[in-house]
Amino acid sequence: MNTICAIATARAAAAIGTIRVSGSDCVSICSKITRLKKGSLETSKSAVMRLAVIHDGKDEIDEVLCTVFRAPASYTGEDTVEINCHGSLSILERVIKLLIKNGARYAQPGEFTKRAFLNGKMDLIQAEAVGDLINSHSQTDAALALRRMSGSLSGEFNAIFDALISLNTDILAYIDFPDEGLTDVEPQTVLRRLKNIKTRILKLENSFNTGSVIHNGADTVIIGAPNVGKSTLLNAVLGYERAIVSDIAGTTRDMVSERAVMGGVTLNLCDTAGIREKAEQIEQRGIEIARQSLKTADLVFAVFDGSKTISDDDRKIIELCKGKTAVAVINKCDLPQSIDKEYIRGSFIQTVDISAVNSDGIDKLAEIVKDMFLSDKVSVESGMLLTNTRHYERAVRARELVDSAIATVEHGFTPDLASVDITSAASEIGMITGNTVSDKIIDEIFSKFCVGK
């Protein structure tokens, strides 16, 4: 492969900026623009930082630290040089131009990680986890990505892949040698093996709801009657004043959206217009938007004013929340209470008392969110959660094919007729790990990475 280079750190002024160079000629190319205090890059030991000066002939550009990583003990699996410059963009870009002038080319998005995958340093799940870690929004999301990078999820998918291949091999052996009395392909044995495989796939498939929320965030709608403290709750969760707060009813007329982390879970928060029967035209439009947002919400915070009795508007809110994953947030607990809390508790899966203006009770709300979405501690801690839609869709298809193979055997057909579905199921699992993936899919996956990674 030819030698590629790119700025691996953010394109902004900083104390340090890193340039990554990878390919069979990277050491010789870097040697042309570096002058070490002692020795040369060609004779440098692997993973040892060397002080050097970047130069363009007689013109010295920067004093840097250079590190050579010899293949295969590098990120990409090929010879790699990392140059740590002072973090001026003008310096970094000048060094890049020098590298290109001397034989390197600018890397495509995700090309370093793509090379790591192609060189067997990681499988496709691990490679995608690199991008997920870079784009993680919470500690939980980052921890899951790190576990996927270590191969925890890959190990389970590889085991499923191997189980499918092993079963299919036994069935094909039976086709070739039907008189050998192979017990591994007796219908009941095949069914048992297929159902065991299905159980393993289904466990991963069912983890996607939790995994998707952790990775993408839970779409969370804050609803309630006017002046119950919805915007104040939003501000309390965020820790700063994002929404305008006023005693005038109907202040919020459009959705105010922001992202926050509560209990280790990323929430895509939407503060909506107060829902009430009597509202003027513009406010009615905001109320309609609030109603529509409820249809796709993963979580609802239904806010009530604890200092007042339940109103008709409150009852409408309760009605709208039926069948939703909704938490009743009884606000203004710092004031004398008049609301019928037992009635509220009987209508919601969880209820919490808060004073949004003082941020009291926000920690309790965070615990509720954590319990809702991170209750499967074993899967979260082990990393056995699907967070990637591509993985989920392939897993679902593989499970459907296994179901078809099970049905074939259960209907009395010989196991060899299930072989086609088993082969296809293995192919679907292989597309997740990269064992059977096409070049087009590989290119599409890595094109979403940033340049330099």
Describe the structure.
With 453 residues, this protein is an alpha/beta fold. The chain has 3 domains: 4-107, Gyrase A, domain 2 (2-Layer Sandwich), CATH 3.30.1360.120; 131-207 and 385-446, Four Helix Bundle (Hemerythrin (Met), subunit A) (Up-down Bundle), CATH 1.20.120; 215-375, Rossmann fold (3-Layer(aba) Sandwich), CATH 3.40.50. It has helices spanning 26-31, 89-101, 111-118, 124-134, 139-150, 152-176, 187-206, 208-216, 230-238, 281-295, 312-320, 341-345, 362-373, 377-382, 389-410, 419-433, 439-446, and strands at residues 4-7, 14-22, 34-36, 49-56, 59-69, 80-87, 105-106, 218-224, 256-262, 265-271, 299-305, 326-331, 350-353. Helix 6 (152-176) packs antiparallel against helix 16 and helix 7 (187-206) runs antiparallel to helix 15.
Describe this protein with a few key phrases.
17 helices; 18% strand; 453 residues; 7-stranded mixed β-sheet; Four Helix Bundle (Hemerythrin (Met), subunit A); alpha/beta; Rossmann fold
How are the secondary structure elements laid out?
Layout: E1 4-7, E2 14-22, H1 26-31, E3 34-36, E4 49-56, E5 59-69, E6 80-87, H2 89-101, E7 105-106, H3 111-118, H4 124-134, H5 139-150, H6 152-176, H7 187-206, H8 208-216, E8 218-224, H9 230-238, E9 256-262, E10 265-271, H10 281-295, E11 299-305, H11 312-320, E12 326-331, H12 341-345, E13 350-353, H13 362-373, H14 377-382, H15 389-410, H16 419-433, H17 439-446
Parallel strand pairs: 1-7, 8-10, 8-11, 11-12, 12-13
Antiparallel strand pairs: 1-2, 2-6, 3-4, 4-5, 5-6, 9-10
Helix pairs in contact: 4-5, 6-7, 6-16, 7-15, 15-16
